From TrEMBL:
InterPro entries the record matches: Bac_surfAg_D15, BamA/TamA_POTRA, D15-like
Origin organism lineage: Bacteria, Pseudomonadati, Bacteroidota, Cytophagia, Cytophagales
Protein name in UniProt: BamA/TamA family outer membrane protein
Family matches, as Pfam families: Omp85, POTRA
Entry keywords, A to Z: Cell outer membrane, Membrane, Signal, Transmembrane
Primary localization: membrane
Ranges where the Bacterial surface antigen (D15) domain occurs: 565-755
Subcellular location, record wording: Membrane
Domain POTRA residue range list: 31-147
């Protein structure tokens, strides 16, 4: 109905135009292009050609006729010349281009060149002009393309390097660092990237003056005159300009670094810094071979201290030395920011206020102290009756002291080597939550070490992470009903009630993360890996009754205080591979897992609720509601209850592909998700949720579906439709449920998932 009304509206508009006397009498004074067609392209899409070749931007279907655009173009020119407002006729401000044969020949050559740059060295492009209305002066343009064979890199390459020592460096780069692989399609962008990588590699080997201009990459047509399998000749130097720095092959070493402090924008007021603390952030030593990565690493260390608005560098050079001169503009000692906002939940407004206060240079010249406070009075769904909205007062306070170095023994720091942006943090926090069901307080104390070994390797280690949780219940019917609800969940095997019991949770944890690429909405090849280790309540093993008396005295509760002891391990591996001759599609793979074991008998071998694993939802198994799948073959009575587990296995495979342009890139995806969570047999949960090596594979849940990704460059909107394929909660002969998929609330309803960004 909607599309029919739009079509009728367009037809009525056209009829209105035809009934206009001026419109009927209007004629073009010169030939205009009615339509531009692209034919014969197979491996390069029309969207790519339109995007990269300006002369093809008109090669799309237009809503109105060429005469309509021409008529309003003439009206617009007339009104503009009289100084009148163009009014609504700006709607048609996309006139058909004039027929210009010389410009069409330029467009034809641009298509040919674009194909050559993308590996089609023997492509042919033909131009045809068809006059369709001599009286109306309209012509159709057709570009016919014969792509022919595509060339690929053979990796049978040659080297012409004047300096033998430099030649050895180039050969070492070629073996271990080259971005070109055998059978990659010939692509000028890839050759450009190879040049940049060679330059970066050599600048890390001491060649301060080496530049892209010194690298020549030429196609070798002697070994294969057909250029179907292309070899490259690496020629260094290959300067095109006469006035070029000829010190490209000279080795340089670092001289002593110096620092200049610009107190104000007025450069006449310059003070020399006390360089003792700053020098400790420099990762290179005087006399080391010049390395652009080490230089950038040092600058990042200085910038990460948050003491300077800007950090820049200049160089003084001698015959063999590079003397870095670091120019610094300091930040203010005090910074304050405040944000007032609000939310609306089911028609109920909820204001919040967030304040942050930063003090720099408190105990040393490079530390800073962060204070933050948030107060919100917002509405949330009720725990028991989710259709009701409850008012919720929440206060969050935190303080963090940051030092731009690791407070570790010298022997350990020596073993760690040069680091990026290392940091030691000390802090505490206080959370207060006041709901009709309960009053809850959380007090936190933590310490963290953070550092990076490279832009792609990140480490975090915490020796102290203490959390004291306490809950009080008002004497109201709502609070009584909530306590009964927690007890009901406990009888069903759900340990949510433990989150509201007085608790002391302490842990030591370590995290390592590696990522071979920088995050972006753009599809790209690469992989990432993260591993986490955590030991909870380790010091309690040294105490006979496994409790800390003064903590019990602080809480002063009439309930037993929960002291947890547990071990937790988790990992996350992701792989992304680009597919297709144009590398526009992507195959994404994810495999994550975890194991959390509570060995504290005093708590019935139960974990703190936040340390459990959960599965299901928009970034997990999308055919199940968030955190509602499992454990094992357990069939939950209600979808309102989160299902925690101690063992996690989850995997996803997703094929992503481009579709069309619509105010951004519209991409599609098809996916398969699989996994589940389980509990240990000593957890006193449901037996259907216990993990067993001889049966767990029969309890793997599988879902599938398709999705749309609307990429606006600055953010990506995602919609996934998913359905269950194998439901482990069903009896053994009824687990296959794909045939029972429906859009209604039947046995296997389709789940709609909306999110921002890719699911993984």
């Amino acid at each position: 109905m909607k599309y029919r009304n739009i079509l009728i509206g367009l037809l009525l508009t056209q009829v209105l135009f035809f009934s206009c006397t001026g419109y009927r009498q209007f004629k073009f004074t010169e030939y205009k292009v009615n339509r531009i067609d692209i034919q014969g392209n197979k491996l390069i899409s029309k969207e790519d050609l339109r995007t990269n070749i300006p002369g093809l931007k008109e090669s799309y279907a237009r809503i109105f006729s060429p005469k309509t655009y021409g008529f309003f173009e003439a009206k617009r020119k007339l009104k503009d010349s009289l100084g009148k407002s163009p009014a609504f006729i700006q709607l048609f401000n996309t006139p058909n281009p004039s027929l210009n044969k010389a410009y069409l020949e330029i467009t034809k050559e641009a298509i040919h060149k674009y194909y050559r740059n993308n590996g089609f060295l023997k492509n042919q492009v033909y131009l045809r002009i068809d006059t369709i209305h001599k009286s109306n002066k309209l012509a159709n343009i057709t570009f016919s393309i014969e792509e022919n064979s595509v060339s690929s890199f053979s990796k049978n390459d040659s080297f012409l390097v004047d300096n033998p020592q430099l030649g050895k460096k180039i050969e070492a780069y070629y073996i271990t660092e080259s971005v070109i692989s055998v059978n990659d399609r010939l692509n000028l962008e890839l050759l450009k990237k190879e040049k940049e990588n060679i330059t970066h590699y050599l600048k890390n080997q001491g060649y301060f003056y080496f530049s892209n201009e010194a690298v020549g990459l030429k196609l070798n047509d002697l070994k294969d005159s057909s250029l179907f399998r292309v070899g490259i000749i690496y020629k260094i130097p290959d300067f095109k300009e006469v006035n070029t720095n000829r010190l490209y092959d000279r080795l340089f070493r670092f001289g002593k670094a110096s620092f200049i402090n610009y107190q104000y924008s007025d450069t006449s007021n310059i003070g020399v810094l006390n360089t003792t603390a700053l020098s400790k952030l420099i990762t290179f030593k005087e006399g080391d071979l010049y390395s652009v990565d080490q230089l950038n690493q040092s600058l990042q260390n200085i910038y990460a201290s948050d003491q300077f608005k800007s950090v820049s560098i200049k160089f003084d050079t001698s015959s063999t030395r590079v003397f870095p001169k670091v120019e610094l503009v300091p930040n203010e000692k005090f910074n304050f920011s405040s944000e007032l906002g609000g939310s609306v939940f089911r028609g109920i407004p909820g204001p919040f206020l967030t304040n942050s206060f930063k003090v720099r240079r408190v105990f040393s010249s490079l530390d800073y102290l962060d204070f933050s406070a948030r107060v919100g009075f917002e509405a949330q769904a009720g725990f028991i009756n989710t259709d009701q909205a409850r008012k919720n007062l929440e206060v969050n306070l935190s303080t963090t002291l940051n030092f731009p170095k690791l407070f570790l023994p010298a022997t350990i720091k020596k073993q760690l080597g040069a680091l990026y942006a290392s940091q030691t943090q000390l802090g505490f926090g206080y959370d207060y939550i006041n709901r009709p069901e309960y009053l809850r307080t959380i007090f936190k104390i933590f310490q963290r070490y953070q550092w990076r070994k490279s832009p792609f390797k990140t480490f975090q280690f915490s020796l102290v992470d203490l959390n004291i949780l306490n809950t009080n219940y008002p004497e109201t019917s709502t609070a009584s009903a909530f306590k009964s609800y927690l007890e009901e969940l406990r009888l069903q095997g759900n340990n949510l009630y433990r989150s509201f019991n007085p608790s002391f949770v302490s842990s030591i944890h370590f995290t390592y993360a590696y990522r071979s690429f920088l995050p972006s909405n753009e599809l790209q090849a690469g992989e990432s890996f993260q591993i986490g280790l955590e030991s909870g309540g380790s010091t309690l093993n040294l105490i006979g009754n496994k409790k800390i008396t003064f903590i019990e005295n602080i809480l002063g509760s009439n309930q037993n205080i929960q002291f947890y002891r547990f071990l937790r391990f988790n990992f996350d591996y992701r792989k992304y591979k680009m597919l297709g001759i144009n590398r526009k599609s992507q195959l994404a793979f994810k495999f994550i897992g975890g194991l959390a074991y509570a060995y504290g008998e005093e708590n019935d071998y139960q974990l703190p609720y936040e340390k459990n694993f959960f599965i299901g939802g928009p970034s997990s198994l999308r055919a199940w509601k968030p955190r509602r799948l499992g454990p094992g073959a357990y069939n939950s009575i209600s979808n309102l209850i989160e299902q925690p587990g101690s063992i996690l296995l989850e995997s996803s495979v997703e094929y992503r592909f481009p579709m069309f342009q619509m105010f951004g890139k519209m991409n599609g995806a098809v996916f398969i998700d699989a996994g589940n969570i389980w509990t240990f047999a000593n957890s006193k949960g449901e037996k259907d949720g216990y993990f067993a090596f001889d049966n767990f594979y029969n309890q793997i849940a599988v879902g599938t579906g398709f999705g749309l990704r609307w990429d606006f460059s600055y953010f990506l909107l995602r919609l996934d439709l998913a359905t269950k394929v194998i439901n482990p909660a069903k009896p053994i002969n009824e687990k296959w449920v794909l045939s029972k998929t429906s859009f209604s609330s039947g046995e296997n309803p389709i789940e709609f998932n909306i999110g921002i960004g890719y699911p993984f």
